[in-house]
Design goal:
two-stranded antiparallel ribbon; LexA-like; mainly beta; 12 strands; 209 residues; 8-stranded antiparallel beta sheet; LexA repressor; Umud Fragment, subunit A; 2 helices; EC 3.4.21.88
Length: 209
């Protein structure tokens, strides 16, 4: 009589296939830590934070002495503006461009005494349109709100990130800093760390040509 253990399954090349388990995808020791993994239950509010901790870390973009420069308005520059908005393309030849004008000083800087310029040296906010070499304007007079891009100070080091303020199920709020680039980790504060919002980013100065 043929016993079940006598059955052999062959692959296309005629090699016997092991039907008693074997290597599985994503099983066994992980190369990063070289040790077995375990299953655990964690609070829902900590899922993002723990995933970020486990991600391979990019080089830190924290800076102790950022190159902040105060704004100095020396001249007035006005650029003619059309009376109505137009779609990208060719404007109407009949449109009057001289009726109104925009002063770039007033348009870009609301509070000159509280506004500073910083040259960006990191790609952590790339998906928000901020790349290495871009200059950003930072207004210290503004109150930072959820979703604002800010210059934050953590343990005497500066970083540019998006401020996130999440309400938890127990009524408290969790404050963290979001990187807009998957290659960089978000920043979650530990109990001994202090967060200070130095200013709110109001403008990205980027030359296209």
């Amino acid at each position: 009589m043929l016993q079940i253990q006598d059955l052999k399954i062959m692959d296309k090349s005629g090699t016997p296939v092991n039907m008693h388990g074997g290597k599985r995808n994503n099983a066994g020791r992980k190369a990063k830590y070289a040790e077995k993994t375990v299953v655990m239950r964690i609070p829902e509010s900590k899922v993002i934070e723990i995933k970020q901790y486990l991600k391979p870390k990019s080089a830190s973009d924290l800076e102790t002495f950022p190159d902040l420069k105060p704004i100095q308005i020396k001249t007035q520059l006005k650029i003619s503006a059309p009376l109505e908005s137009v779609a990208a393309g060719f404007p109407s030849p009949a449109m009057d461009y001289s009726v109104d004008a925009i002063d770039l000083n007033d348009f870009l800087v609301k509070e000159p005494q509280a506004t500073f310029m910083l040259r960006v040296n990191s790609l952590s906010m790339k998906n928000a349109g901020i790349e290495v070499g871009d200059r950003i304007l930072i207004d210290r007079s503004l109150k930072a709100e959820h979703g604002d891009i800010v210059l934050a100070l953590i343990n005497n080091e500066f970083t540019v990130k998006r401020l996130m303020r999440e309400k938890l199920s127990n009524g408290t709020y969790k404050i963290w800093l979001k990187a807009e680039n998957p290659d960089f980790p978000h920043i979650f504060l530990h109990s001994e760390e202090q967060l200070f919002i130095w200013g709110v980013v109001t403008c990205i100065l980027k030359k296209l040509k």
